[in-house]
TrEMBL record:
EC code(s) of this entry: 2.7.7.18
Function field: Catalyzes the reversible adenylation of nicotinate mononucleotide (NaMN) to nicotinic acid adenine dinucleotide (NaAD).
CDD domains, per database record: NMNAT
Family, per entry: Belongs to the NadD family.
Keywords attached to this entry: ATP-binding, NAD, Nucleotide-binding, Nucleotidyltransferase, Pyridine nucleotide biosynthesis, Transferase
Keyword Ribosomal protein among UniProt keywords: no
Name under which the protein is recorded: Probable nicotinate-nucleotide adenylyltransferase
Main EC class the enzyme belongs to: transferase
Domain of life, per lineage: Bacteria
GO molecular function: nucleotidyltransferase activity
Organism: Bacillus suaedaesalsae
The protein's annotated pathway: Cofactor biosynthesis; NAD(+) biosynthesis; deamido-NAD(+) from nicotinate D-ribonucleotide: step 1/1
């Protein structure tokens, strides 16, 4: 039985912190595999800054030297109505029926789920397991404790809370802004992705 983490994000673009986070989670939670899942531009709650093709290519470039990391364009291929985290996790639980599936997310998303901002949040929390990464200014235990939804499904296995030990945040937004301003974000993202963005004149 393998332990598989699903790491969904816009990856617009993927950053070195995305990779460091995935590596830290895989090590700390003994994951056999981390699936990088770029979200679709068809999602109504997301606004992308470049095409799916470019984000997909950059994710593949970024992870190509790590055998534990794989990329999956599953969400990019789905119809807009079917793109929810609940449906996505159901897909992976069916695909890897004999394995343990975990959804990797930041504490900010835990807050949103607890506040009822996600679709199918009751079934999402009831039927799945989560690895939650600390974010500055968010008390994860208090977030769970003050939400009836999260608290009533916290059986000790639902949420694996991780303090990464280093408050390092490099946002994709900042990198995009640096490119737009003709700045130099070279060492904030993989070299292959930096070169790809330069070659294709992205985020200008």
């Amino acid at each position: 039985m393998a332990r598989i983490g699903i790491y969904g994000s816009s990856f617009d673009p993927i950053t070195n912190v995305h990779l460091w986070t995935a590596s830290t989670v895989a090590h700390r939670c003994h994951l056999d595999q981390v699936i990088f899942l770029p979200c679709s531009s068809k999602r109504k709650d997301k606004t992308m800054n470049t095409e799916d093709e470019h984000r997909w290519n950059m994710v593949q470039l970024a992870i190509e030297e790590n055998d534990r990391f794989i990329a999956d364009d599953y969400e990019m291929k789905q119809e807009a109505w079917k793109i929810t985290t609940y449906e996505t996790l159901k897909h992976y639980k069916n695909k890897f029926a004999n394995d343990e599936i975990f959804f990797i997310m930041g504490a900010d998303l835990l807050v949103d789920i607890g506040d009822g901002k996600w679709g199918n949040e009751e079934l999402l929390v009831k039927e799945n397991r989560f690895i939650v990464m600390a974010r500055d200014g968010i008390d994860m235990l208090k977030t769970i404790g003050r939400s009836p939804l999260l608290r009533n499904h916290d059986d000790g296995n639902t949420f694996h809370l991780i303090d990464k030990g280093l408050a390092m945040e490099i946002s994709s937004t900042y990198i995009r802004e640096e490119f737009a301003l003709d700045g130099e974000p070279r060492y904030l993202l993989p070299e292959s992705c930096y070169n790809y963005i330069k070659q294709h004149l992205l985020y200008k």
